[in-house]
Amino acid sequence: MHQKLTKTLFKLFTGELTATIMFGGVWLLFLRMYEWANPYLTSFPPLYAFLFLEFLLLQGSYYWYLKWRQAKHRDFTILPDYHLKFFRILKRVNLFLIGAGFALLIYESINHSKAYYWTLFLYLFALAEYINYYYIRLSYQSVDEMKDFLRHRKLRRSKLAEELKQLKAISQ
After folding, report:
1. Tell me, what DSSP letter sits at residue 136?
2. Chain CA centroid to CA 144, Å
């Protein structure tokens, strides 16, 4: 059981980190290879949405790294308060960034930017990641998890959301 959990947490943290690096690499590769991609990749609104997505992926990777490190030492408790307080600050920063991104989307739609749909896609992707980390678990990776989801027909709270809720209960 311990070995399986440790392996799963390792895959989660390295998967998020790999996605962050790969997305950045593909972004830069497209900039170098395709001249037509420049307005989609270098104008401020899509670049903002992309960097916000990368920021969220790094948060997820860091969370899963911390959980993996705990599991390696057979510590199955919630993260220490100082880590959870850091994530609570990040959650607030993310809310501000979401608001700024929404304002950029409105600006893009009013100006009929040709990068609007690309910006919208990146922004929605980032928003889904934010919800997945801080509220409701949106990703189900194994067949057993999918069966559990279908059996209960209910989305589960994310692990980070559960731990932040416990921090809130402890500090009250």
Report:
1. B
2. 23
β-strand partners of 157: 136
Closest CA to 158 of 81, 74, 21, 56: 56
Contact residues for 169 (Cβ-Cβ < 8 A; gap 6+): none
pLDDT tens digits along 129-151: 999 999 987 765 556 665 666 66
Q: Both tokens of residue 40?
A: 């989609």
* Tokens 């934010």 belong to residue: 130
- The single-letter DSSP state of residue 158 is P
pLDDT digits 0-9 by tens, 18-59: 999 999 999 999 989 988 888 888 889 999 999 999 999 999
Q: What is the DSSP letter of 79?
A: P
